[in-house]
Amino acid sequence: MDSLGGLPFVGMETSASFLPRESLDTLLEAIRREGYSRVLGPVVRHGAITYTGITSSDDLPKGLRDRQAPGHYRLEPEEGERSFAWANGPQALKPLTFAPRETLWRCELDDNGRLSFLDSALTPTPTAVIGIRACDLAALKIQERHFLKPPYPDPHYAARRESLFLVAVHCSHPADTCFCASTGDGPRAEAGYDLAMSELDHGFVLVAGTDRGRAVLALLNLSPASPDECAQADDEIEAAASAQTRSLPDRNLKDALYARLEHPHWDQVGRRCLSCGNCTAVCPTCFCHAEQDEPALAGSSSEHLRQWDSCFTAVHSYMGHFLVREETRLRYRQWLTHKLASWHEQYGRSGCVGCGRCIAWCPVGIDITAEVSALLESGDAQS
Amino acid sequence: MHNPDRPVEVEVVERVEETPSIYTLHLRFTDPEVAASYRLLPGQYNMLYLFGVGEIPISIVSDPDFEGPLEHTIRSVGRVTRGMERLKVGDRMGLRGPYGRGWPLDEAEGRDVVIVTGGLGCAPVVSMIRYVLQRRERFGRLVILQGVKHTDDLIWRRQYERWQQMPDTQVLLAADVGGPNWPYSVGKVTVLFSQAGIDPDKSIVMLCGPEPMMKASIDRLLALNVPAESMWLSIERNMQCGIGHCGHCQVGPYFVCQDGPVFHYPELRPWLGVTGF
């Protein structure tokens, strides 16, 4: 997948196009003509931004902004007509590539007691997603490293990933929970998109990142974006970076956290944590899943499924005769040290992209950036 | 892309009752092509599938060169293993594997092989013991140290007695609680080290069993000047996929299902005995 990732719009006037706001539907139409029969976009559902099927730009939110804080997510009116003036909702791309529940194979039992093992169909609907954030593209790349690593690349993940056409929208309205600037994953979409857009009041500055993206652009016959439009788009992204108030102190906290495995703060956060698993459900990089079997009532076939799991459940570390992590404190430590420490050894970077979802969707408002600060500020104290 | 998660059919060709709760299944691939391409290393495991119930990781006891059925010794502890207990000769099940890293065969060549096992954790090392005995001239002494809780826990008892008769092989057994028919030592497996006469420079040590037992044994071996680099251990975690995807088996940076189950002790040293990992 090639990409023009990370380059500012200024200086790219020759390749950046401008899509007037009133022509947004022509982009949706062009994407459909390229074979993506299902188009998902940000839609307000149950009081949150969710990626949902859209038929036209009328389905998109207008003049809405998300207010996020620890344990808090609300949509509020925002001046203007922008459709992407929000940071994110509870979903990232994760449910589209790593399905919450998916059949991996099926087993059939015949009358002679013979078993046949059959692959489940790998024919996901070609799907375009509009409004993807930089943090979510970074998370997608991380999950690709996990699910597609040799020697056992996962064909289910690969087929779903391959079926996606991704339209990123650079983030101009970060939430108070965002810290992608400190993890290096946003607010500018760096790579992994087919098209990337910046939303201005009167329209969109648009670049293609792949041949698929260029093919869609070619159908639109757009004028180039003006230098002023490019500069404004860049300025808004810059402002979105400097508006972020939360941060992680370092992109690699492995040694710092490994030196604090017995720090008393784990007890403190363990007493607040409900072990509910919301953080792992909304985290765009968490990949744990349980494998389970569901026999049909007739008794002659059985499905083998995978379903999202969480390291905050007791059974996650179940060993037949004991649990590796009986206490909540140990589960929180497992999650945090995996995400920010051992992930470096496994995948060459942190497992956190700074989207802040685990902060907003935690029912008791546990804040990963605050927990890291508390762990680090008291030196390398061991209990 | 091949689905790496899908089993193949195997048939139960023999079932051995080892103890009231431990049984051994001998499994034959029903597809000769699969049988011909199957290669294993001592210390690896297969995911075994019971129709409609689920999968579990089980160590392979067979020798890598043995072309007959694959042997799996299973303890009835959970839903799947209790169901598998009821399988009879001729019944079919699913198998995928072998998975994971096995014992360090090349490093072991020419050295004394010291096997330390405890509790019921001996299945992963049985394949290594058989491997050494099949290729006796390629290794130095074979020392087998086995600890159990109760004297009736000892499966393979006949096998241990047979191994004791093999050339240049020392078998030392210890039970936490002795009994009238227990001619061996009483205490933890660590009481056996002084009797074993381990040459710290010539030995490679392979451990398998409960982690506190392995940690205590490693500490004792280090005190006997066995270098940390000469020790390897096989550990157990919740393994559901076997291919490094599902995340349950992680210990620090490792996926036990793929990076293990056999580890070089220096790799696991920071994690062994740390509650919660």
The CATH level-2 architecture of the largest domain in chain B is identified as 3-Layer(aba) Sandwich
Measure the end-to-end span of chain A: 48 Å
Strand segment tally of chain A: 14
Q: Kindly, what is the distance between the CA atoms of the first and last residues of chain B, rounded to a whole number of angstroms?
A: 33 Å
Strand runs of chain B, count: 15
Oligomer: heterodimer
* Classification by helices and strands of chain B: alpha/beta
Q: What is the assigned CATH homologous superfamily of the largest domain in chain B?
A: Nucleotide-binding domain of ferredoxin-NADP reductase (FNR) module
CATH class of the largest domain in chain B: Alpha Beta
Question: What integer is the average pLDDT of chain B?
Answer: 92
Order of helices and strands of chain A: EHEEEEHEEEHHEHEEHEHHHHEEHHH
Radius of gyration of chain A (Å): 22 Å
Counting H and I runs of at least 4 residues, what is the number of helices of chain B?
A: 9
Query: How are the strands of the largest sheet of chain B arranged?
Result: 10-9-8-7-11-12-15
Share of helix of chain B, binned:
10-25%
Strand order of the largest sheet of chain A: 3-2-8-9-10-11-1-12
